[in-house]
């Protein structure tokens, strides 16, 4: 029996987005929808603009002096580049996890408590404790750290640090989580834990993940976008992209012919 197609539920929409660094065009006219209930993977060879495009989704490119973004990006229908968008608030709503785990040089507890505190999400110390525990549980780290919350976040293993960074993103109650190669510095066991976590977080947060690992994209995502030389070559259901790509360039990339 053919499956009934799911009704799309778009959390973010990007239309005709281009990004240049000085005179160099890094992303050229990309349009894409990010579904609330799915994991979207961005794949493509090094330098094709995956990170650049990912960073447009929470205006992280604002921090790069030479970067210029044009086009239209909406979060729940709201233009995120509008002058009255509060960028600090936006980055809480659209959180980010980087390639290299980057915990603050503070305690495990403080790493998670910092965001909720500055965003005023906890009225009391007990509230804050609850948010910290809930976030660490959701990030699959609580059992490993509950007896050492005052230890430094940087004293954890790489995989634990990455889950701490995920807990830190979760703590401010985001709507979207962007992950830029979150497993590339991790061993296979730590990688498997993050992938499991992505499965558990799906549905609660819209998730976008950049990965060079084709198997990972196939395992964790429902939608895949293939980028090449700054353009979006093909975007669709992950199963279609990997088994029946329309574009020759997609086929070449996923079969390892270049990259
Ligand atoms: N801060 C920057 N200043 C100038 N150029 C940049 C900057 N960041 C990226 N670029 C350029 O933009 C293009 C796209 O880079 P980007 O980092 O987005 O690619 P990527 O697909 O994420 O690559 P990788 O897979 O290696 O991470 C590259 O040509 C890169 O050199
Ligand atoms: Mg990158």
TrEMBL record:
GO biological process: phosphate ion transmembrane transport
Gene Ontology annotations for the cellular component aspect, listed alphabetically: membrane
Identification of the protein by name: Phosphate ABC transporter ATP-binding protein
Keywords from the named record: ATP-binding, Nucleotide-binding, Phosphate transport, Transport
Keyword Secreted recorded: no
Domain of life: Bacteria
UniProt cross-references to SUPFAM superfamilies, sorted A to Z: P-loop containing nucleoside triphosphate hydrolases
CDD domains associated with the record: ABC_PstB_phosphate_transporter
Higher taxonomy: Bacteria, Pseudomonadati, Pseudomonadota, Alphaproteobacteria, Sphingomonadales
UniProt cross-references to Pfam families, sorted A to Z: ABC_tran
Domain ABC transporter stretches: 12-254
Single GO term (MF): ATP binding
Keyword Kinase included in the entry's annotation: no
């Amino acid at each position: 029996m053919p499956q009934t197609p799911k009704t799309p539920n778009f959390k973010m929409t990007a239309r005709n987005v281009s990004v240049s660094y000085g005179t160099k065009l890094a992303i050229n006219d990309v349009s894409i929808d990010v579904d609330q209930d799915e994991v979207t993977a961005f794949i493509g060879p090094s330098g094709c603009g995956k990170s650049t495009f990912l960073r447009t989704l929470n205006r992280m490119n604002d921090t790069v002096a030479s970067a210029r973004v044009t086009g239209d990006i909406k979060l729940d229908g709201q233009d995120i580049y509008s002058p009255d968008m509060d960028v600090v608030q936006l980055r809480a709503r659209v959180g980010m996890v980087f390639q290299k785990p980057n915990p603050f040089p503070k305690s495990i507890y403080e790493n998670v408590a910092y965001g909720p505190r500055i965003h005023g999400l906890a009225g009391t110390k007990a509230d804050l404790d609850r948010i910290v525990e809930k976030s660490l549980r959701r990030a699959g780290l609580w059992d490993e750290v509950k007896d050492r919350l005052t230890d430094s976040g940087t004293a954890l293993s790489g995989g634990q640090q990455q889950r701490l960074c995920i807990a830190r993103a979760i703590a401010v109650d985001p709507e979207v989580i962007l992950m830029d190669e979150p497993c590339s510095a991790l061993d296979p066991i730590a990688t498997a834990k993050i992938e499991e976590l992505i499965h558990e977080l799906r549905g609660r947060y819209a998730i976008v993940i950049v990965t060079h690992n084709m198997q990972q994209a196939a395992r964790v995502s429902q939608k895949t976008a293939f980028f090449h030389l700054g353009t979006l070559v093909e975007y669709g259901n992950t199963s279609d992209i990997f088994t029946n790509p329309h574009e020759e360039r997609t086929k070449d990339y996923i079969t390892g012919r270049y990259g």
